[in-house]
Specification:
One of its GO terms (molecular function) is porin activity. This is Outer membrane protein, (Porin). Homotrimer. This protein is 7% helix and 53% strand. The chain has one domain: Porin, CATH 2.40.160. It has two helices and 22 strands. A 16-stranded antiparallel β-barrel has the order 1-3-4-5-6-7-8-9-10-12-13-16-17-18-19-22. A three-stranded antiparallel beta sheet has the order 11-14-15, with no helix packed on it. β17 and β18 form a beta hairpin. The radius of gyration is 22 Å and the shape is globular. The longest helix has 19 residues. By secondary structure, the chain is mainly β.
Length: 381
């Protein structure tokens, strides 16, 4: 009897220990709002004001599963499955994928970092994204640079990818990613690769990154990515940035440049297909300069804003985009907040081009000016 009780007790102890070494977390974020835009181009090419219900004006609505298993010696097995969806109609985002935001599995070491395989973010998103207001909780989708040309708002992910992310070595972190084409006889066609580096020292953060996608003249969404705003033979993005925090305030600067070869089309996220613009197959360049800042007025109330200047080269023309953004958010609890944000964009030198102002996520304007404002609520779980 005593032996039976002892075995039962030890079995319970080991089962509890094994359970403690593995974990799976269900998490998510829901962002819903009402957006007003003073000028949206319709199918007839006319500009009209527009009120619409929006999902993900700041952060894309998502739910996910994140898990790990302790393998001993500082090594863990890790995975993430993350679905993006539109809260207003219940449909999946990212082209209807079940786990369109992220889907990967891999190994993580406390000493050496992690290696993961699947559908993942590139190094520009991982390293530069946190330094810009787009792609963060302080502005997000509608604060993106024109057409989200540098992908800091995560418009596309990379399929078939292998990614390495280092451990933190005295403030330094590095990462690299390679996305396979998965084509027999077409190893370099539609592949993607990127690399990034960051350094943190107290209130100072510095980062730089590079990304390249080769698409063989196809739309960039053909195999490796989805919902990219461009169709081009090759896309290259590089940039750097820094931020500095002092007390409740943080200021930052981000520089990026995007270069497209053999570009045949571009579009604006949120234009419902009405913003598709055919191009002649030449080279395009976007150079973005963002100055940003945020300030916590109280533990519950924050304010954030930025100015972005984008100098571009499109079809021999030189459009220049000026965008001003402002957001205030109030936390009702640790998991729920309400926000109000607004954007103004003015573009010049568009003669000969079928484009107007292009605030990300709201559609292309019929003129060179566009104003948008959103009131919304976010809940995290």
């Amino acid at each position: 009897m005593k032996k039976t009780l002892m075995v039962a007790a030890l079995t319970g102890v080991f089962a509890t220990a094994a359970h403690a070494q593995s974990s799976v977390t269900l998490y998510g974020l829901i962002d819903a709002g009402l957006t007003y835009t003073n000028n949206n181009r319709n199918a007839a090419g006319e500009g009209h004001s527009n009120w619409k219900a929006t999902s993900g004006s700041v952060n894309g609505s998502r739910w996910g599963l994140r898990g790990s298993e302790d393998l001993g010696g500082g090594l863990k097995a890790i995975f993430t499955l993350e679905n993006g969806f539109n809260i207003m109609n219940g449909t999946n985002s990212q082209g209807g994928r079940e786990f369109g935001r992220q889907a990967y599995v891999g190994l993580s070491s406390n000493q050496f970092g992690s290696v993961t395989l699947g559908r993942q973010y590139d190094s520009v998103v991982d390293f530069l994204g946190p330094l810009a207001l787009t792609g963060t909780q302080y502005g997000g989708t509608q604060f993106a640079h024109p057409f989200d040309n540098d992908n800091l708002d995560n418009t596309f992910r990379v399929d078939n990818s292998v990614k390495y992310t280092s451990a933190n070595y005295a403030g330094f972190k590095a990462g690299a990613m390679y996305g396979f084409s998965n084509q027999a006889g077409g190893f370099s066609n539609n592949r993607a690769y990127s690399a990034g580096l960051s350094y943190n020292y107290g209130p100072l953060n510095v980062a730089g990154a590079y990304f390249q996608a080769n698409n063989g003249g196809q739309a960039a969404g053909a195999l490796t990515t989805d919902q990219t705003p461009f169709a081009a033979g090759r896309q290259r993005i590089f940039g750097g940035g820094l931020s500095y925090a002092f007390g409740p305030a943080t200021v930052g600067f981000v520089f990026t440049q995007t270069m497209l070869d053999n570009a045949t089309a571009l579009t604006n996220v949120g234009s419902q297909g009405l913003g598709n613009i055919a191009l002649g197959g030449g080279s395009i360049r976007f150079t973005n300069y963002e100055v940003n800042g945020r300030y916590n007025l109280t533990p519950a109330l924050s304010i954030a804003g930025n100015y972005t200047y984008t100098d571009s080269r499109i079809e021999g023309e030189k459009p220049k985009f000026h965008q001003f953004n402002l957001q205030t958010a109030y936390a009702l609890s640790k998991r729920t907040d309400v926000y109000l944000q607004g954007e103004y964009q003015h573009v010049t030198d568009t003669e000969g081009l079928p484009i107007g102002a292009t605030i990300n996520g709201v559609g292309i304007a019929s003129s060179n000016n566009q104003v948008s404002a959103t009131v919304g609520v976010r809940h995290r779980f």
